[in-house]
Write the structure tokens for this entry.
Amino acid sequence: ITVPPRSYVVLTQNEIYEEINTLIDRDSFAESTQINQSSPTIDGQLGFDWGYPVIIDRMGDGFSTQIDLENGYAVNDGEYLYIAFTYAQNLFDSGNLQYAIALDTVSGGSFEDPLHENIKFQSSGSADYLFYLYEDPNNPWNEISTGNYFEYNQQLGIWEDPISISANDFSSEALLGFTEIRIPLEKLNLKDG
């Protein structure tokens, strides 16, 4: 499976079965960040602090009964990058899903996913950082409960061992179909917004 750059996709073990490519133009994104008067609160709630979505997808067009990704949000306050997404899922049987956010912030990077051998990134969209969020199979609502952060070591050509994402830096509300994560810009080797 090759994931195109700047993509928002749903993958099975063997194929991409939903690709969401309705990206919002830069002017609309700039307007969204201007409307945002404060940084989003990481509380599992989609509030006005998220502004407009930067990715929009129709509800009900996913090919899975387990999950259908919908809108994506991104906000940068100069200290953190905030990313959120909305989705519809089968709350009782979602199949222990994993959510991944791949970021390409510097030239170079990896074309391979450290956890899934069959997932590749296109050369113009190689990943430097991966953030995985995992559902809790023991939670009756399949709530996302843990997360890991992977950084690609350019000099060694390997993915570093994963680091747990602090519970303060992500939140998810399965009943609302909303997940959000906060990433320090310095962790992404970005000095400011």
